[in-house]
């Protein structure tokens, strides 16, 4: 077998994935949100539910309009003796036997009064459709938050990897200096080993950081509909500025007005109220207008019977009323009322949950804003401390251990500063989702 042909099936997937990795796509947060809203499969499912609810409403409304139905029947009868009047010797066939029977029938029906059953059902489906649209808004808001969370988590991983690499460069320079000091008998073996241990620890940390970059990138790609292995880069610069903080009370009030879950439950309450009206329809009579057109061979209404197609019609009113059904209607009404109460209590639970979510998100944002100030100040101090200590070390004025401590403090300060900024960004996104923005 040709070696090239043997290896080709194994090489093609590798070539494909390598091409994905090389084709780097630059992402901004706005572009990620736009792409996610277009491509996310969960959101497409929600949109399909909205379409299904709208079609269900159209189906229910169609029941209030006139309906026209056509039926056709063919019947083959068995042979029977012809009917004769006693003593009749004329041979006249008064009731001829027609063995092949055909009938075409058109039926027109229009509900006239259903005790508000049809109107109640229509209202219920309309409110359910509106509630489904609010569910779509809720899923859309959740998706936007998930994308922001994944985006800033990926940003955090990238910055962490960048910071670790910078620190590795600093410690690498430190190692060269200490080795030179060692050659000049100005440092001990222990000093060199201490820096090497620090460098090894940083390289281990870099492995975890680079792995976090890949994992968070795949999570973001999955959310916005890109291939999982698509290589991407981020164009955003994380700012740590935020305007004046509104009051918690105003945010809760805004959430009560804007959250799609609450709007959806308001529609479901109205839908349940329509369900109660629909159940009460059982106490009223049902009246329908019906008209039929017959085209039959033979036509049973026309005498004498002839083996030919003849047309006839009829028009009438259908009336029905349950006089006694063992209180079935009463039980149906009570069930509908119980469902209405469940919906109201569920609304209150969601309202309480919104209050709690907004309050927690608000406090998290306040905390994140305070942490940024301290983290920024700490990072600035750590950088200055490292600069001064490094200069003193090169001049032989401080011990090797002090520079190691300064490098470690700088790494921790930079990581805390990045984490504080990302926490701040996610806290903003969480609060915006909590208030329905």
List the helices and strands and how they pair.
Layout (H helix, E strand, L loop, with lengths): L2 H20 L2 E3 L1 H11 L1 H22 L4 E10 L23 E14 L3 H67 L5 H36 L7 E3 L13 H11 L1 H21 L5 E12 L12 E11 L7 H67 L5 H35 L3
Account of the 3D structure:
This protein has 437 residues and is of the alpha+beta class. The chain has two domains: 322 residues, Outer membrane efflux proteins (OEP) (Up-down Bundle); 68 residues. The chain has a four-stranded antiparallel beta sheet with strand order 2-3-5-6, with no helix packed on it. Helix 2 packs across helix 4, helix 4 packs antiparallel against helix 9 and helix 6 packs across helix 8. 24% of the residues are buried. It has nine helices and six strands; from the N terminus they run αβααββααβααββαα. The longest helix has 67 residues.
Could you give a quick summary of the protein structure above?
With 437 residues, this protein is of the alpha+beta class. The protein contains 9 helices and 6 strands. It has 2 domains: 23-65 and 115-285 and 327-434, Outer membrane efflux proteins (OEP) (Up-down Bundle); 67-78 and 93-113 and 286-320.
């Amino acid at each position: 077998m040709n070696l090239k042909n043997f290896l080709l099936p194994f090489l093609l997937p590798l070539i494909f994935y390598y091409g994905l990795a090389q084709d780097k796509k630059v992402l901004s947060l706005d572009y990620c949100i736009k792409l996610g809203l277009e491509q996310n499969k969960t959101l497409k499912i929600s949109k399909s539910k909205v379409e299904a609810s709208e079609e269900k409403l159209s189906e229910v409304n169609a029941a209030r309009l006139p309906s026209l139905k056509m039926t056709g029947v063919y019947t083959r009868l068995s042979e029977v003796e012809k009917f004769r009047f006693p003593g009749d010797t004329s041979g006249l066939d008064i009731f001829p036997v027609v063995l092949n029977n055909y009938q075409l029938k058109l039926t027109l029906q229009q509900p006239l009064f259903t005790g508000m059953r049809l109107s109640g059902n229509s209202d219920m489906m309309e409110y359910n459709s509106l509630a489904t649209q609010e569910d779509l808004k809720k899923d859309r808001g959740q998706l936007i938050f998930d994308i922001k969370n994944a985006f800033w988590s990926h940003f955090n991983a990238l910055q962490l990897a960048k910071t670790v690499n910078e620190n590795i460069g600093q410690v690498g320079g430190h190692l060269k200096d200490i080795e030179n000091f060692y050659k000049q008998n100005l440092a001990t073996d222990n000093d060199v080993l201490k820096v090497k241990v620090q460098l090894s620890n940083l390289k281990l940390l870099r492995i975890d950081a680079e792995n976090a970059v890949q994992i968070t990138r795949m999570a973001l790609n999955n959310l916005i509909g890109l291939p999982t292995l698509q290589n991407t880069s981020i164009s955003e610069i994380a700012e740590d500025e935020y305007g004046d903080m509104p009051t918690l009370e105003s945010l809760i009030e805004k959430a009560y007005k804007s959250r799609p879950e609450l709007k959806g439950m308001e529609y479901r309450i109205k839908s349940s109220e329509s369900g109660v009206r629909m159940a009460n329809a059982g106490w009223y009579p049902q009246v329908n207008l019906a008209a039929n057109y017959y085209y039959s061979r033979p036509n049973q209404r026309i005498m004498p019977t002839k083996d030919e197609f003849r047309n006839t019609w009829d028009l009438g009113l259908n009336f029905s009323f349950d006089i006694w059904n063992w209180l079935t209607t009463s039980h149906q009404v009570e069930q509908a009322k119980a469902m209405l109460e469940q919906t109201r209590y569920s609304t209150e639970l969601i309202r309480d949950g919104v209050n709690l979510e907004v309050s927690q998100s608000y406090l998290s944002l306040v905390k994140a804003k305070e942490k940024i100030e301290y983290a920024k100040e700490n990072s600035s101090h750590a950088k200055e401390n490292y600069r001064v200590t490094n200069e003193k070390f090169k001049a032989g004025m401080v011990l090797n251990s002090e520079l190691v401590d300064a490098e470690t403090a700088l790494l921790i300060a930079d990581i805390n500063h990045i984490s504080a900024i990302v926490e701040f960004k996610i806290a903003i996104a969480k609060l915006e989702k909590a208030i329905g923005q």
